[in-house]
Amino acid sequence: MTKYVYPQKMSFNKYDDNHIIGFLNEKVIENYQLEGDGDNKPEPYTGYQYEGPESDGSTIMECKDPTSRDDVINAIIRSKYSETEEFAIQRHYANDSETYAEEWKAYNEWCEYAKTTGTSWLS
Asked: Which residues pair with 59 in a beta bridge?
């Protein structure tokens, strides 16, 4: 995974007919300072750090319709959990909620993140 800092919030774009490229795992860094020396040192700014598998910190996700909120949210969820993994987590929790409480919590937090992020991207 690559982390990359931008001077502005990033979102997503259509990548090709079946994919979007988006910036996930945002972390806001106040007073971010690029490296430099002496008079060449730039002023600090609010940086937006993203983490993903691409060299620019982005993530390429399968998405049929980048104008559909549901498709974009599903793309974000699938960037971390395959459909098979999702079903396994649900089965684990249904069969033994106490043992799998942390796994269930992490999954649900990611789904909420996907809903919030997808909605924000399309606003």
From this structure: 22
Distance (Å, rounded) from C-alpha 26 to C-alpha 105? 20
Structural domain containing residue 78: 2-122
The answer, yes or no, to whether residue 37 has pLDDT greater than 80, is: no
Q: What is the DSSP letter of 83?
A: H
| pLDDT at position 35 | 79
Report how many domains make up the chain: 1
Bigger pLDDT: 58 vs 38:
58
Cα–Cα distance for residue pair 113/117, rounded to 1 Å: 6
Beta-ladder partners of 38: none
Instruction: Please name which of 65, 71, 47, 66 lies closest in space to residue 57, comparing C-alpha atoms.
Output: 47
Region at 76 (left for phi over 0; alpha for psi -120 to 50; beta for the rest): alpha
Helix (H) or strand (E) holding 25: none
pTM: predicted TM-score of the whole model, two decimal places: 0.90
